[in-house]
């Protein structure tokens, strides 16, 4: 990964539909050269895909929350098997510390939140943090600080 690849990644993270000709113009390179570099990054797994960013509120999800869960003995594996089936879960992570899991969820209303927590308490003790606002979203990844000149 050189500086040029990081600049290409910055452009694509800003707008994944940005034409390679425009990226090439900004970097002083041809469109085929940009295309070749992007293809190599895709093949290496640096670029894992391209997705639409959807506003949950536009779909009727009025609540967003972070829920941590401390699994009961013997319940972590069943929970990990269940989570992929829960449509409310946007992201889920195994974590260190007192809790085992933190998940980002979207919910239609307060009743939906209550039903979702009722489902989770069969697996462990939960803590819910309702999101008031999003301070930063999809912050682009750049070159690691250790590699900067």
Automatic annotation (TrEMBL):
Source taxon at top rank: Bacteria
Domain HTH asnC-type intervals: 1-62
GO MF term set: sequence-specific DNA binding
UniProt name for this protein: ArsR family transcriptional regulator
SUPFAM superfamilies: Dimeric alpha+beta barrel, Winged helix' DNA-binding domain
Lineage, broadest ranks: Bacteria, Pseudomonadati, Bacteroidota, Flavobacteriia, Flavobacteriales
Pfam families xref list: AsnC_trans_reg (PF01037), HTH_AsnC-type (PF13404)
TM spans (from-to): none
DNA-binding is among the record's keywords: yes
Coiled coil: none
BP GO terms, sorted: regulation of DNA-templated transcription; response to amino acid
InterPro entries hit by this protein: ArsR-like_HTH, AsnC-type_HTH_dom, Dimeric_a/b-barrel, Tscrpt_reg_AsnC-like, Tscrpt_reg_AsnC/Lrp_C, WH-like_DNA-bd_sf, WH_DNA-bd_sf
Keywords (A to Z) from UniProt: DNA-binding, Transcription, Transcription regulation
PROSITE patterns, A to Z: HTH_ASNC_2
An annotated GO cellular component: cytosol
């Amino acid at each position: 990964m050189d500086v040029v690849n990081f600049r290409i990644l910055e452009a694509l993270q800003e707008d994944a539909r940005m034409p390679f000709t425009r990226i090439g113009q900004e970097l002083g390179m041809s469109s085929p050269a940009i295309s070749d570099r992007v293809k190599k990054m895709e093949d290496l797994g640096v670029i894992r895909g391209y997705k639409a960013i959807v506003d949950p509120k536009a779909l009727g999800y009025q609540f967003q929350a972070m829920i941590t869960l401390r699994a009961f003995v013997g319940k972590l594996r069943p929970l990990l098997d269940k989570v992929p089936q829960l449509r409310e879960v946007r992201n889920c992570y195994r974590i260190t510390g007192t809790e085992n899991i933190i998940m980002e969820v979207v919910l239609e209303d307060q009743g939906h939140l209550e039903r979702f927590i009722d489902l989770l308490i069969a697996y462990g003790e939960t803590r819910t943090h309702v999101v008031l606002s999003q301070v930063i979203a999809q912050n682009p990844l750049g070159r690691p600080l250790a590699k900067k000149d």
